[in-house]
Design brief:
homodimer, alpha+beta, about 60% helix, 5 helices, Arc Repressor Mutant, subunit A, 2 domains, DNA-binding, 3-stranded antiparallel β-sheet, about 110 residues
DNA sequence: GGAATAGTTAGGGATATGGCTAAACATCAA
DNA sequence: TTGATGTTTAGCCATATCCCTAACTATTCC
Protein backbone atom coordinates (compact mmCIF):
# COMPACT_ATOMS: atom_id res chain seq x y z
CA UNK A 1 0.00 0.00 0.00
CA UNK A 2 0.98 3.63 -0.31
CA UNK A 3 4.06 4.04 1.85
CA UNK A 4 4.79 7.70 1.21
CA UNK A 5 1.62 9.63 1.63
CA UNK A 6 1.99 13.26 0.74
CA UNK A 7 0.28 16.14 2.51
CA UNK A 8 -2.23 16.25 -0.29
CA UNK A 9 -3.09 12.60 0.19
CA UNK A 10 -3.67 13.18 3.87
CA UNK A 11 -5.77 16.26 3.31
CA UNK A 12 -8.00 14.74 0.64
CA UNK A 13 -8.35 11.48 2.53
CA UNK A 14 -9.23 13.43 5.66
CA UNK A 15 -11.93 15.24 3.69
CA UNK A 16 -13.30 11.98 2.33
CA UNK A 17 -15.23 11.18 5.46
CA UNK A 18 -18.48 12.89 6.45
CA UNK A 19 -17.69 12.80 10.15
CA UNK A 20 -14.42 14.58 9.59
CA UNK A 21 -15.97 17.17 7.30
CA UNK A 22 -18.62 17.82 9.95
CA UNK A 23 -15.89 18.26 12.54
CA UNK A 24 -14.21 20.86 10.36
CA UNK A 25 -17.50 22.64 9.78
CA UNK A 26 -18.08 22.77 13.51
CA UNK A 27 -14.62 24.08 14.20
CA UNK A 28 -15.03 26.84 11.64
CA UNK A 29 -17.21 28.59 14.22
CA UNK A 30 -14.47 28.42 16.84
CA UNK A 31 -12.40 26.06 19.00
CA UNK A 32 -14.10 23.37 21.08
CA UNK A 33 -13.15 20.73 23.58
CA UNK A 34 -13.15 17.10 22.46
CA UNK A 35 -16.31 16.24 24.38
CA UNK A 36 -18.22 19.25 23.07
CA UNK A 37 -17.00 18.60 19.56
CA UNK A 38 -18.10 14.99 19.85
CA UNK A 39 -21.53 15.71 21.35
CA UNK A 40 -23.55 15.67 18.08
CA UNK A 41 -21.98 12.46 16.84
CA UNK A 42 -23.48 9.07 17.62
CA UNK A 43 -20.12 7.42 18.04
CA UNK A 44 -17.98 6.11 20.87
CA UNK A 45 -15.30 8.55 21.98
CA UNK A 46 -12.33 6.38 20.99
CA UNK A 47 -13.71 6.14 17.45
CA UNK A 48 -14.24 9.87 17.40
CA UNK A 49 -10.71 10.49 18.61
CA UNK A 50 -9.38 8.53 15.66
CA UNK A 51 -10.99 11.06 13.36
CA UNK A 52 -9.43 13.90 15.31
CA UNK A 53 -6.07 12.17 15.07
CA UNK A 54 -6.38 11.96 11.30
CA UNK A 55 -7.34 15.58 10.97
CA UNK A 56 -4.42 16.61 13.15
CA UNK A 57 -2.15 14.31 11.18
CA UNK A 58 -3.27 16.00 7.99
CA UNK A 59 -2.39 19.35 9.56
CA UNK A 60 -5.98 20.54 9.44
CA UNK A 61 -6.65 20.93 13.15
CA UNK A 62 -4.46 21.61 16.12
CA UNK A 63 -5.14 20.64 19.70
CA UNK A 64 -3.86 21.60 23.09
CA UNK A 65 -4.45 19.97 26.42
CA UNK A 66 -5.02 22.10 29.49
CA UNK A 67 -5.68 20.12 32.64
CA UNK A 68 -7.92 17.31 31.54
CA UNK A 69 -9.48 19.23 28.67
CA UNK A 70 -8.16 19.06 25.12
CA UNK A 71 -9.24 21.94 22.96
CA UNK A 72 -9.28 21.58 19.18
CA UNK A 73 -9.07 24.36 16.62
CA UNK A 74 -9.06 24.67 12.88
CA UNK A 75 -5.61 25.40 11.49
CA UNK A 76 -5.63 28.56 9.34
CA UNK A 77 -4.88 27.54 5.79
CA UNK A 78 -5.99 23.99 6.47
CA UNK A 79 -7.60 23.79 3.06
CA UNK A 80 -4.90 25.53 1.08
CA UNK A 81 -3.25 22.37 -0.31
CA UNK A 82 -6.59 21.03 -1.52
CA UNK A 83 -7.69 24.36 -2.96
CA UNK A 84 -4.34 24.91 -4.64
CA UNK A 85 -4.38 21.54 -6.32
CA UNK A 86 -7.92 22.09 -7.55
CA UNK A 87 -6.99 25.54 -8.84
CA UNK A 88 -4.02 24.13 -10.73
CA UNK A 89 -6.28 21.51 -12.21
CA UNK A 90 -8.71 24.20 -13.32
CA UNK A 91 -5.90 26.03 -15.09
CA UNK A 92 -4.86 22.89 -16.92
CA UNK A 93 -8.43 22.37 -18.03
CA UNK A 94 -8.84 25.95 -19.20
CA UNK A 95 -5.57 25.84 -21.10
CA UNK A 96 -6.91 22.81 -22.88
CA UNK A 97 -10.15 24.57 -23.75
CA UNK A 98 -8.15 27.49 -25.10
CA UNK A 99 -6.12 25.20 -27.30
CA UNK A 100 -9.29 23.61 -28.56
CA UNK A 101 -10.77 27.01 -29.23
CA UNK A 102 -7.71 28.08 -31.17
CA UNK A 103 -7.94 24.90 -33.18
CA UNK A 104 -11.58 25.50 -34.07
CA UNK A 105 -10.89 29.13 -34.97
CA UNK A 106 -8.05 28.04 -37.21
CA UNK A 107 -10.32 25.52 -38.90
CA UNK A 108 -12.95 28.18 -39.55
CA UNK A 109 -10.36 30.48 -41.03
CA UNK A 110 -8.69 27.88 -43.17
CA UNK A 111 -11.11 25.00 -43.81
CA UNK A 112 -8.90 23.11 -46.26
CA UNK A 113 -6.01 22.51 -43.89
CA UNK B 1 -18.25 1.19 7.75
CA UNK B 2 -19.85 4.03 5.85
CA UNK B 3 -22.86 2.58 4.09
CA UNK B 4 -24.11 5.67 2.33
CA UNK B 5 -21.22 7.38 0.70
CA UNK B 6 -22.17 10.73 -0.71
CA UNK B 7 -20.83 12.20 -3.92
CA UNK B 8 -18.52 14.33 -1.86
CA UNK B 9 -17.08 11.29 -0.12
CA UNK B 10 -16.40 9.65 -3.43
CA UNK B 11 -14.83 12.74 -4.93
CA UNK B 12 -12.54 13.47 -2.00
CA UNK B 13 -11.60 9.83 -1.59
CA UNK B 14 -10.86 9.63 -5.30
CA UNK B 15 -8.57 12.65 -4.95
CA UNK B 16 -6.80 11.12 -1.97
CA UNK B 17 -4.61 8.90 -4.10
CA UNK B 18 -1.61 10.17 -6.08
CA UNK B 19 -2.17 7.75 -8.96
CA UNK B 20 -5.71 8.99 -9.39
CA UNK B 21 -4.70 12.64 -9.19
CA UNK B 22 -2.05 11.98 -11.82
CA UNK B 23 -4.68 10.36 -14.03
CA UNK B 24 -6.85 13.45 -13.74
CA UNK B 25 -3.90 15.72 -14.51
CA UNK B 26 -3.14 13.68 -17.57
CA UNK B 27 -6.72 13.75 -18.77
CA UNK B 28 -6.88 17.52 -18.40
CA UNK B 29 -4.87 17.69 -21.63
CA UNK B 30 -7.40 15.56 -23.47
CA UNK B 31 -8.96 12.09 -23.67
CA UNK B 32 -6.77 9.00 -23.81
CA UNK B 33 -7.16 5.27 -24.18
CA UNK B 34 -6.65 3.09 -21.13
CA UNK B 35 -3.30 1.76 -22.30
CA UNK B 36 -1.95 5.19 -23.15
CA UNK B 37 -3.24 6.58 -19.89
CA UNK B 38 -1.58 3.75 -18.02
CA UNK B 39 1.76 3.95 -19.80
CA UNK B 40 3.59 6.17 -17.27
CA UNK B 41 2.47 4.14 -14.28
CA UNK B 42 4.50 1.23 -12.95
CA UNK B 43 1.48 -0.83 -12.16
CA UNK B 44 -0.26 -3.88 -13.57
CA UNK B 45 -3.24 -3.01 -15.77
CA UNK B 46 -5.88 -4.60 -13.55
CA UNK B 47 -4.68 -2.49 -10.62
CA UNK B 48 -4.74 0.57 -12.81
CA UNK B 49 -8.26 -0.21 -13.98
CA UNK B 50 -9.43 -0.20 -10.39
CA UNK B 51 -8.35 3.42 -10.13
CA UNK B 52 -10.23 4.26 -13.30
CA UNK B 53 -13.28 2.53 -11.91
CA UNK B 54 -13.14 4.65 -8.78
CA UNK B 55 -12.77 7.85 -10.74
CA UNK B 56 -15.69 6.93 -12.94
CA UNK B 57 -17.69 5.94 -9.90
CA UNK B 58 -17.01 9.35 -8.40
CA UNK B 59 -18.31 10.91 -11.59
CA UNK B 60 -14.96 12.47 -12.40
CA UNK B 61 -14.16 10.67 -15.62
CA UNK B 62 -16.28 9.10 -18.31
CA UNK B 63 -15.27 6.31 -20.64
CA UNK B 64 -16.47 4.85 -23.85
CA UNK B 65 -15.49 1.66 -25.58
CA UNK B 66 -15.06 1.62 -29.32
CA UNK B 67 -13.94 -1.71 -30.70
CA UNK B 68 -11.39 -2.97 -28.23
CA UNK B 69 -10.26 0.49 -27.14
CA UNK B 70 -11.73 2.27 -24.16
CA UNK B 71 -11.23 6.01 -24.20
CA UNK B 72 -11.36 7.99 -20.97
CA UNK B 73 -12.12 11.67 -20.60
CA UNK B 74 -12.37 14.15 -17.78
CA UNK B 75 -15.97 15.03 -16.93
CA UNK B 76 -16.55 18.78 -17.10
CA UNK B 77 -17.32 20.00 -13.61
CA UNK B 78 -15.64 16.96 -12.09
CA UNK B 79 -14.21 19.08 -9.32
CA UNK B 80 -17.25 21.21 -8.63
CA UNK B 81 -18.46 19.30 -5.56
CA UNK B 82 -15.03 19.49 -3.96
CA UNK B 83 -14.53 23.12 -4.85
CA UNK B 84 -18.00 24.05 -3.65
CA UNK B 85 -17.53 22.40 -0.31
CA UNK B 86 -14.18 24.11 0.16
CA UNK B 87 -15.69 27.46 -0.80
CA UNK B 88 -18.51 27.02 1.71
CA UNK B 89 -15.95 26.20 4.34
CA UNK B 90 -14.02 29.34 3.49
CA UNK B 91 -17.16 31.41 3.96
CA UNK B 92 -17.80 29.87 7.35
CA UNK B 93 -14.26 30.67 8.37
CA UNK B 94 -14.46 34.27 7.15
CA UNK B 95 -17.78 34.80 8.90
CA UNK B 96 -16.08 33.70 12.07
CA UNK B 97 -13.21 36.11 11.55
CA UNK B 98 -15.71 38.90 10.99
CA UNK B 99 -17.47 38.10 14.25
CA UNK B 100 -14.16 38.10 16.04
CA UNK B 101 -13.28 41.41 14.46
CA UNK B 102 -16.58 42.94 15.52
CA UNK B 103 -15.95 41.68 19.04
CA UNK B 104 -12.52 43.27 19.21
CA UNK B 105 -13.83 46.53 17.79
CA UNK B 106 -16.57 46.56 20.38
CA UNK B 107 -14.04 45.97 23.14
CA UNK B 108 -11.91 48.85 21.92
CA UNK B 109 -14.90 51.15 21.86
CA UNK B 110 -16.29 50.14 25.22
CA UNK B 111 -13.48 48.67 27.35
CA UNK B 112 -15.52 48.28 30.56
CA UNK B 113 -18.10 45.90 29.15
C1' DG C 1 -10.03 11.32 50.20
C1' DG C 2 -13.70 9.81 47.02
C1' DA C 3 -16.51 10.59 43.20
C1' DA C 4 -17.33 12.62 38.93
C1' DT C 5 -15.37 14.28 34.52
C1' DA C 6 -12.33 14.18 30.31
C1' DG C 7 -9.43 11.63 27.68
C1' DT C 8 -6.54 7.69 26.53
C1' DT C 9 -4.95 2.83 25.73
C1' DA C 10 -5.62 -1.82 24.34
C1' DG C 11 -7.55 -4.99 21.62
C1' DG C 12 -10.88 -6.86 18.39
C1' DG C 13 -13.97 -7.35 14.22
C1' DA C 14 -15.95 -6.48 9.53
C1' DT C 15 -15.08 -4.51 5.34
C1' DA C 16 -12.40 -1.63 2.00
C1' DT C 17 -8.23 -0.53 -0.48
C1' DG C 18 -4.37 -1.11 -3.36
C1' DG C 19 -1.57 -4.07 -5.20
C1' DC C 20 -0.44 -8.72 -7.73
C1' DT C 21 -0.68 -12.95 -11.34
C1' DA C 22 -2.90 -15.93 -14.49
C1' DA C 23 -6.21 -16.63 -17.63
C1' DA C 24 -10.12 -15.24 -20.49
C1' DC C 25 -12.39 -12.29 -24.05
C1' DA C 26 -12.86 -9.42 -27.94
C1' DT C 27 -11.29 -7.21 -31.99
C1' DC C 28 -8.25 -5.80 -35.54
C1' DA C 29 -4.53 -6.89 -39.06
C1' DA C 30 -2.04 -9.91 -41.98
C1' DT D 1 -7.38 -18.13 -39.33
C1' DT D 2 -3.96 -16.99 -36.61
C1' DG D 3 -1.63 -13.89 -33.96
C1' DA D 4 -1.14 -9.64 -31.71
C1' DT D 5 -3.42 -5.99 -29.14
C1' DG D 6 -6.44 -4.00 -25.55
C1' DT D 7 -8.87 -4.79 -22.09
C1' DT D 8 -11.53 -7.60 -18.50
C1' DT D 9 -12.41 -11.32 -14.97
C1' DA D 10 -11.18 -14.06 -11.16
C1' DG D 11 -8.92 -14.78 -7.22
C1' DC D 12 -5.47 -13.84 -3.77
C1' DC D 13 -2.69 -11.13 -0.24
C1' DA D 14 -1.33 -7.41 3.09
C1' DT D 15 -2.64 -3.47 5.20
C1' DA D 16 -5.84 0.32 6.32
C1' DT D 17 -10.24 2.10 7.81
C1' DC D 18 -14.00 2.67 10.79
C1' DC D 19 -16.34 1.19 14.24
C1' DC D 20 -16.87 -1.14 18.98
C1' DT D 21 -16.20 -2.34 24.37
C1' DA D 22 -13.56 -2.52 28.55
C1' DA D 23 -10.38 -0.80 31.34
C1' DC D 24 -7.09 2.73 32.56
C1' DT D 25 -5.11 7.56 33.74
C1' DA D 26 -5.37 12.16 35.00
C1' DT D 27 -7.91 16.18 36.83
C1' DT D 28 -11.17 18.65 39.29
C1' DC D 29 -14.70 19.26 42.73
C1' DC D 30 -17.10 18.35 47.20
Amino acid sequence: MAKHQTDLDHVFLALGDPTRRAILERLAAGPLSVTELARPFAMALPSFMEHLKKLENAGMISSDKDGRVRTCALVPGAFAPARDWLAAQKHLWEARLDRFDAFVTQLAKDPNE
